[in-house]
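Protein Record: Sequence and Backbone Structure Tokens
======================================================
Tokens: labelled as protein backbone structure tokens, with as many entries as the chain has residues.
Task: work out the structure tokens from the sequence, keeping to the layout shown below.
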Amino acid sequence: MSSRSSETPPAGQTHFGFRSVSENEKTPLVHGVFRNVADNYDLMNDLMSGGIHRLWKAAMVDWLRPRPGWQVLDVAGGTGDIAFRIQDRIDGEGTIHVCDLTWDMLSVGRDRAIDQGRLQGLNWICGNAETLPLPDRSMDAYTIAFGLRNVTRMDRALSEARRVLKPGGRFLCLEFSQVVLPLLDRLYDLYSFRLLPALGGMVAGDRESYQYLVESIRRFPAQEDLVQRMVANGLEQVRYRNLSGGIAALHSAWRL
């Protein structure tokens, strides 16, 4: 895409959208964004994607094929969207550990779980993807949807994913990616930069947070670049599938 940028920031610096900030600044800034958007997060996902994000998440769980009894870690999944889908597939036999950076997002997820009668099999953890509060080799699967682009040190997060996976454990990442259709990439740029922040301002009263979220998509590695990052951090048999012409992509890997 024309506005995608993959330039490497100086040592000790990282990207917060199109801004360059110190690595120590980014996590508090991201925490602030998701604290601000938590109450409207699911509504905004529906509005911004026309509901298509639901199809992408269903495709993610289809590819995961979770089994009863599994221990699954869902990172950056505070509102429970992925966790609930997995729980339904395993008929409640197993545990999904939902880890999110902000209590605000987790509170939304826990309230949704209670409203739906999901009183067992979910473990809510406030934690950072770069320093997961879980033992080595303890998870059958690790999922992360629309969260990897928000971590400060992506390589640490990928290394942590491998650490907590059991040998034979599965890694799945759903993330906005690089559009591969020439006409669609221009339309998507126009839509995302012109309309999404405005929509965030009107519906959620927070244009600035949604401006960051749009910019963070453009900073995220393209499909093949993410494959290389995953391999470099010890994940194996890495593959990916484009969704909706590459607006999103699913990356799969294993700890062997």
Q: What stands out?
A: The beta strands are 13-16, 19-22, 70-75, 94-100, 122-126, 139-145, 165-176, 236-243, 248-255. The chain has two domains: 48-177+220-255, 186-218. The mean pLDDT is 92. Residues 48-177+220-255 form a domain with the Rossmann fold fold (CATH 3.40.50.150).
